[in-house]
Amino acid sequence: MSSPKIFTIKESLSELKKIQKKSNPMIAKRVHALLVFKENELNGISKERLLKP
What we know:
This protein is mainly α. It has helices at 13-22, 25-39, 47-51.
């Protein structure tokens, strides 16, 4: 199993939530993934954990 991916995301959580509300359903899912990455920015997150709600 590979190590967790660590991403640095410039936008704040509140900005991402606003973008998610305004965007269409396909883009909203991608923004949701960014929100999860942002919440786990310091320690990283695995692909399996990202798929869990």
